[in-house]
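#structure-requests
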Amino acid sequence: MSDAARLILFAPSEENTDALCARLSPLVEAVPFDAVILPITGSDDRARINHAKSAAAVVQKHNAALLLVDAFELVARTGADGVHLSGLARLTEALSILKPLDRIVGVAGLKARHDAMEAAEAGADYVMFGEPRADGSLPASSAVLERAAWWAELFQTPCVAFATESEMAIAVAETGAEFVAFAPDIVASSDDAPKALKTLHQAIISAHRPER
């Protein structure tokens, strides 16, 4: 029997650290996210480290893991819990650095089923389907749901599916995927984002498929 799909948040795109933390805090307080995925931009390592440390303090206070996008070399220095890779290219390197530290290594950017199987076989902690591409475009929702259902049915490595709207998040839960991921704009039309997130979370709990 599977549990209801758990939640992963893509952190809002915000380079100002104080503004980022102000936006993150009410979201991670509202519902129990398992992880928050944080993009790390810029070339100043000190600024990047301080940005991630501040986000980690907010996220980890609410028992969520902070995952840095691609910047696995900064994980230990920032107190982050792991890395979210945007492709397979550096998976082996990330695993060699982070697994001895018992940190999380997840992989997205998986264009083919074989890529996902390769990531899982190598030791990734999760595979993700449906996240925004580098150019901002998104795969078809039907393709994401099909891929998530296929994976959840056959493989032990946890699956994350990215949802662009509330209805899709609920549909992801129905596939048996272990995690549903989304950005804050999934509730952007609401005047009360934390309340809207709570409503969505309850719908996801109600929608999960009890048998895999």
